[in-house]
Design a protein that fits this description.
- The chain is mainly beta.
- Helix content is 0%, strand content 52%.
- The strands form 2 sheets. Strands 2, 4, 5, 6, 9, 10 and 11 form a 7-stranded mixed beta sheet that branches. Strands 1-3-8-7 form a 4-stranded antiparallel beta sheet, with no helix packed on it.
């Protein structure tokens, strides 16, 4: 079982950068694939990026490629999402997730954090 807590959200201007962190507790963090998802008000949950167990492979949604970078530090039980060149359309609640399957399908993730709000103004 994994418990996840996101942090780092806030209000920023378009073009700014922000780094989100996900702190995990549990014995088997390193055995899980991890992902970041977001959900804007009134919209469906959207895949942002994922990373495999060892941190050697990443996968991103087209909307964030080249701007967002996901990473993990299994020794510290942490995962991060570096967000650069933020746009107003990036405004959403961001969630970290852990699952047994690497990829973009949210149904494959078993554990979720409470989320952290990112708001990007023009």
């Amino acid at each position: 079982q994994v418990q996840l807590v996101e942090s780092g959200g806030g209000l920023v201007q378009a073009g700014d950068s922000l780094r989100l962190s996900c702190a995990a507790s549990g014995r088997t963090f390193s055995t899980y694939a991890m992902g970041w998802f977001r959900q804007a008000a009134g919209k469906e949950r959207e895949f942002v990026g994922s990373i495999n167990l060892s941190g050697t492979r990443t996968y991103y949604a087209d909307s964030v490629k080249g701007r967002f970078t996901i990473s993990r530090d299994n020794a510290k039980n942490t995962m991060s999402l570096q967000m650069n060149s933020l746009k107003p359309e990036d405004t959403a609640a961001y969630y970290c997730a852990a699952g047994r399957v690497f990829g973009s399908d949210s149904v494959r993730y078993d554990y979720w954090g409470q989320g952290t709000q990112v708001t990007v103004s023009s």
